[in-house]
């Protein structure tokens, strides 16, 4: 077989003054640190620090008070060397002694148990501004913003045409694993004209600095793939390469693209581990082919596509059982069948097991953290999901997917303001990302915003519920009939809603009673069912469903207090008991949110909301 051929283009260097020179002087308390002179002083008197101690202090001063994880600090200080954690502990102790600090009384360096350290003193630059975050802090300003376009086809690929979408989608997902990048979604990428687009216009609309694009077609070897990395500011080519490969070598293109993009754009980033992104494709060629085809199939949510995708992921993992992304995406398929599939092909808890395998292989996989959140929340562990995502966000603040997961977990815990703030942060990172914020707005009783954020995508339930809750039963009934045809069957909430808009009270109540008797229904769905029961004026059944919803892990007092469909319940003593229970649980969840550093993660968005007077981001 012919060796891969490639053509290199010159690297584009940023213009002078664009790289952002690090401020030369920091001050905190009685201390001042001069970066250029490599001097730390206390009240003007110099203090001796070894080189690693000086470097560690610089990391803290640039962190904006955010948590620095131990492994990240160790990679930054000893990038090419394996060292024991004791080396870091000794260096922390040395720095604390130099600052007159101690673990018991932390005026400067605070230990975050089992995670890392945080610099807690106020820091100013020589210009009197907060020091810029270069490690562990809010990285959106310095993260490399990039969008990956679907590749254009220049000819038939013998049934492999799906690679034009699934290969760049895999590259995009892999780059999103690295905190050095803010990666725009493929949903945003496909919204641009594939043939006529201007780099400057894309850069402005998508708010990116770089565009990765490419072309695929047939070749003597099998497939020809060419890629270009384009600077959006002026349209110049930062890097370009072409391959002629056999079909089974497609994973090598994925790895090469990741390698070159990281090498050219993020080589000096202290928190960039290319291995995390290079692990985004299976090692086995046939497993790679099946994985990419399955990814393409799941872009359309229907029974046939998800069934075929599930089988492909299973076959992929039979060939490469240590490929974590396939376990995560398989878990998503199983989850889809648990919610929407016929009872005879329900996955019976396989979704949770698939994600457990994904996390066992790669505990830091962003893809798994996001996709697992609804499953963990529906299992009554939304607080754990919220804390898990917040821990990950302390070191991965440029991931829109993690913030999207946080939208869901916070809502289940009744932290609706935090849910909205997480959505705003996700949208700041990727304007086209899909989050579940529509359900949050619904819980707040804002149907207009709920419908806006649910959008015109292929909906399932919330849009028809909004129509019914707004008195538009006829529109709701018309849409439900088309949904029934698409899914083949509908979940209980949709069946009971259909009975309501058709005026069939007996059938609606029958569906609700059957749902209440199920062992493990979803807690948020139970809340929606309780609304239906209250609307049918089945008060005991409504309170029973609400009690099951709260016990199952969904509580939001805003919805309990404001939802008009719950009005018939509010005079009952049982409802008042349930509201008091939800109040207590919501307060507990707030403590968990604060203990996990939620305010530090979302403070920027919350402060902006306050300044803008509550205006929707």
Key terms for this structure?
single chain; 617 residues; alpha+beta; Arc Repressor Mutant, subunit A; Rossmann fold; Serine Threonine Protein Phosphatase 5, Tetratricopeptide repeat; 4 domains; six-stranded mixed β-sheet; five-stranded antiparallel β-sheet; 27 helices; 10% strand; globular; disordered C terminus
Question: What does the model show?
Answer:
- It is a single chain.
- The chain is an alpha+beta fold.
- It has 4 domains: 25-125, Winged helix-like DNA-binding domain superfamily/Winged helix DNA-binding domain (Arc Repressor Mutant, subunit A, Orthogonal Bundle); 144-278, Rossmann fold (3-Layer(aba) Sandwich), CATH 3.40.50; 282-363, Serine Threonine Protein Phosphatase 5, Tetratricopeptide repeat, CATH 1.25.40.10; 380-599, Serine Threonine Protein Phosphatase 5, Tetratricopeptide repeat, CATH 1.25.40.
- It is built from 27 helices and 14 strands.
- Strands 9, 10, 11, 12, 13 and 14 form a 6-stranded mixed β-sheet that branches. A 5-stranded antiparallel β-sheet has the order 4-3-2-1-8, with no helix packed on it.
- β12 (210-218) and β13 form a beta hairpin.
- α10 packs antiparallel against α11.
- The chain is globular and about 80 Å long.
- The N and C termini lie far apart (54 Å).
- 46% of the residues are buried.
């Amino acid at each position: 077989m012919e060796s891969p051929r490639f053509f290199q283009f010159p690297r584009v260097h940023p213009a002078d003054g664009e790289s952002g020179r690090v401020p030369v002087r920091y001050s905190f308390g009685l201390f001042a640190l001069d970066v250029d002179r490599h001097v730390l002083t206390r009240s003007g008197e110099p203090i001796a620090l070894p080189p690693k101690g000086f470097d560690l202090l610089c990391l803290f001063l640039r962190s904006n008070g955010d948590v620095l994880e131990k492994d990240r600090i160790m990679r930054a200080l000893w990038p090419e060397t394996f060292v024991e954690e004791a080396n870091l502990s000794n260096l922390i102790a040395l720095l604390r002694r130099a600052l007159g600090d101690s673990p018991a009384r932390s005026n400067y360096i605070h230990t975050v148990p089992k995670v890392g350290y945080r610099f807690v003193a106020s820091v100013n630059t020589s210009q009197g501004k907060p020091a810029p975050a270069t490690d562990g802090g809010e990285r959106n300003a310095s993260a490399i913003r990039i969008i990956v376009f679907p590749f254009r086809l220049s000819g038939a690929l013998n049934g492999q045409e799906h690679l034009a979408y699934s290969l760049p989608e895999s590259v995009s997902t892999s780059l999103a694993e690295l905190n050095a990048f803010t990666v725009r979604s493929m949903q945003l990428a496909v919204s641009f004209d594939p043939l006529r687009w201007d780099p400057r216009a894309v850069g402005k609309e998508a708010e990116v600095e770089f565009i990765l694009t490419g072309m695929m077609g047939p070749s003597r070897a099998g497939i020809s793939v060419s890629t270009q990395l384009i600077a959006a500011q002026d349209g110049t080519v930062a890097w370009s390469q072409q391959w002629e490969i056999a079909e089974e070598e497609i994973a090598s293109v994925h790895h090469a693209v990741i390698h070159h993009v990281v090498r050219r754009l993020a080589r000096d980033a202290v928190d960039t581990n290319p291995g995390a992104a290079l692990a985004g494709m299976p090692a086995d060629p046939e497993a790679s082919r099946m994985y990419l085809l399955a990814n393409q199939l799941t872009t359309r949510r229907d029974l046939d596509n998800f069934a075929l995708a599930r089988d492909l992921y299973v076959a992929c993992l039979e060939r490469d059982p240590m490929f974590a992304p396939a376990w995560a995406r398989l878990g998503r398929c199983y989850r889809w069948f648990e919610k929407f599939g016929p009872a005879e092909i329900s996955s019976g808890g396989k979704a949770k097991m698939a994600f457990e395998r994904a996390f066992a292989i790669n505990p830091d996989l962003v893809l798994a953290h996001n996709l697992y959140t609804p499953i963990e929340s529906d299992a009554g562990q939304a607080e754990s999901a919220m804390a898990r995502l917040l821990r990950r966000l302390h070191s991965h603040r440029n991931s829109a997917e993690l913030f999207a997961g946080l939208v869901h977990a916070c809502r289940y815990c009744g932290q609706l303001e935090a849910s909205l703030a997480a959505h705003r942060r996700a949208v700041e990172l990727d304007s086209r990302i899909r989050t579940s914020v529509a359900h949050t707005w619904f819980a707040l009783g804002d149907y207009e915003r709920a419908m806006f954020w649910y959008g015109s995508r292929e909906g399932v339930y919330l849009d028809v519920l909004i129509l019914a809750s707004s008195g538009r039963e006829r529109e709701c009934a018309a849409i439900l009939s088309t949904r029934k045809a698409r899914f083949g069957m509908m979940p209980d909430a949709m069946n009971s809603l259909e009975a309501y808009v058709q005026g069939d009270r007996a059938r609606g109540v029958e569906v609700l009673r059957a749902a209440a008797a199920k062992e493990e229904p979803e807690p948020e769905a139970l809340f929606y069912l309780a609304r239906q029961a209250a609307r049918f004026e089945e008060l005991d059944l409504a309170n029973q469903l609400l009690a099951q919803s709260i016990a199952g892990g969904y509580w939001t007092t805003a919805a309990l207090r404001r939802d008009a469909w719950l009005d018939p319940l509010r005079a009952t003593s049982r409802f008042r008991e349930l509201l008091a229970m939800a109040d207590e649980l919501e307060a507990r969840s707030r403590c968990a949110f604060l203990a996990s550093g939620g305010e530090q993660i979302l403070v920027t968005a919350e402060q902006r909301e306050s300044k803008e007077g509550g205006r929707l981001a």
